[in-house]
Design goal:
It comes from Priestia koreensis. One of its GO terms (molecular function) is L-phosphoserine phosphatase activity. Keywords: Amino-acid biosynthesis, Cobalt, Hydrolase, Magnesium, Serine biosynthesis. It is a single chain. The longest helix has 24 residues. By secondary structure, this protein is of the alpha/beta class. 41% of the residues are buried. It has a six-stranded parallel beta sheet with strand order 3-2-1-4-5-6. It contains eleven helices and six strands. The chain folds into two domains: 139 residues, Rossmann fold; 113 residues, no CATH class. β2, α7 and β3 form a beta-alpha-beta unit.
């Protein structure tokens, strides 16, 4: 019998990919107005430069362990206590400027001043555009009171709490919120799932994990012996990781729990 549902946050309840996409669109429009560039071409260039820079830093292995992606580095502040979060905080201003400046250079524009302007603009646009899937609250309303609900999210505590602050309706649904940066390891490490079960006071057979990422949410649940629901909104191909259930719309979860 399922007693608790464990939810991922980004791209499961929050539509983080859309928020990042809109932030890129709005920021790249500034360069379009200034130089007539194709904003899509600039976005692709900045994404590439951001990934390359991000993986070159000494904090990269820590960011991978916690589950922080390069584009979160373009707007997160990382005002957390851990020594490596403090290092990331130190790196962030130059990282952002370099990613945008190099992205501009990659499409033939050598303008570090504009690079710095865009680097400062992107975090503003990301905070202005939080998106929540339309079915999120309908599903949470039906589950609240019938199951314990736990939010299990990878990332910097400061950044993930910022996301919850700018979408304040979500947090009250949850009995517990666990952020990988607080715990010290992220999904798919089974230890963070075991920690979640301890918080809930239940056995692994009594929990159900719901998430969009096969390699973090589902793989981690599998390793911890927790049944899983993969929400595959975009008809992605499966890899070697197999969820217990697969759905394309969050409302289908209610049928699994019925």
């Amino acid at each position: 019998m399922i007693k608790a549902v464990i939810f991922d946050l980004d791209d499961t309840l929050l539509w983080d990919q859309k928020s990042v996409q809109v932030a890129f669109e709005e920021t790249c429009k500034v360069a379009q107005e200034r130089y007539g560039v194709d904003p899509n071409v600039l976005e692709d260039a900045v994404r590439k430069e951001a990934r390359d820079l991000y993986s070159s830093y000494e904090t990269y292995s820590f960011a991978q362990l916690i589950g922080i992606n390069p584009f979160e580095g373009l707007w997160g502040e990382f005002s957390d206590d851990h020594e490596l979060f403090q290092k990331m905080k130190e790196l962030v201003p130059s990282y952002r400027k370099e990613a945008w400046t190099r992205g501009l250079q990659a499409i033939g524009i050598d303008d570090p001043t504009l690079g710095e302007e865009l680097a400062e603009r992107f975090p503003v646009e990301r905070r202005k555009h939080p998106f929540v899937y339309e079915e999120t609250f309908e599903v949470l309303n039906q589950l609240k009171g019938n199951y314990q609900l736990l939010l299990l999210t990878n990332g910097s505590p400061h950044l993930q709490n910022t996301k919850l602050t700018i979408t304040p309706e979500i947090r009250p649904y949850f009995d517990h919120v666990i952020i990988s940066g607080d715990f010290g390891r992220g999904k798919p490490d089974p230890a963070i799932f075991e920690h979640a079960l301890e918080k809930l006071g239940i056995e692994k057979e009594e929990a159900l994990m719901v998430g969009d990422n096969l390699m973090t949410d589902i793989l981690g649940a599998n390793r911890a012996g927790v049944r899983s629901v993969w929400i595959n909104r975009h008809q992605k191909e499966r890899n070697e990781v197999n969820p217990t259930y697969e759905i394309t719309h969050l409302e289908e979860l209610l049928g699994i729990l019925a």
